[in-house]
């Protein structure tokens, strides 16, 4: 591989690509000169020269009895890259893709305390306009996107968020035919969502509104946002919701990769 690279690239570019290959090798688990050299196809002397330069520039570090690890400079650059491209901007093309594909309302949201905060909304072409809007907040346990943001939480946290969202009389006064789901029903649904990596809103938050949501993760694999596809019941029957699960999860996974998450 390196021989082909040497023939097709100028010497300066070749050195740059080899340096990047060293970083990739260490990121993949190579911890000593021998394994790095085997990974990138260079001699031990060339590998030592590249690695020493990267250590001097803080792109790599050496930990006693462990070996080479990614260095603090990469951490600094990673945070800078994330801050320079806001989540909404980064997500824009993915949300547009979902909108074009489904014709439904698309949301991007994050968690703030015990609430969902909507950062983006693309209105749908199907059915009436929803009341959600950018900057709008809702209780976590009442929305599909909120449940997606809760997938990694402990059961005790689910229960706390569930109880904080249930009206004291067990019903919404402006929903005469709506009955709240019990904690046992909520827990069972959450367990199903965790197993599937998605979440539904089955008119939990607003009469006749359903949605399919999935979490977005960063490089640490922590959930940092959620995306959802929502519409009214006539345009969002249960069979369509199940068909949308892999679509929404797929877009969320690609956005997660943009935030540094590596696929397992």
Number of helices: 10
Q: How much helix is in the residues?
A: 40-55%
How much of the polypeptide forms β-strand, as a percent range? 15-25%
- Using the coordinates shown, work out and report the CATH topology of the largest domain: Beta-Lactamase
Count of beta strands: 8
Which regions are unreliable across 5 or more consecutive residues at pLDDT < 50? 1-10, 170-177
Q: What does the largest sheet look like?
A: 6 strands, antiparallel
- CATH level-4 homologous superfamily of the largest domain: GAF domain
Order of helices and strands: HHHHEEHHEEEHHHEEEH
The shape is: elongated
Radius of gyration computed on alpha carbons: 24 Å
Give the class from helix and strand content and strand pairing: alpha+beta
Query: If strands are numbered along the chain, what order do they take across the biggest sheet?
Result: 5-4-3-8-7-6
Question: How many structural units, i.e. domains?
Answer: 2
Specify the CATH class of the largest domain: Alpha Beta
| Mean pLDDT across residues | 87
Measured between the Cα atoms of the first and last residue, the distance is 25 Å
CATH second-level architecture of the largest domain:
2-Layer Sandwich
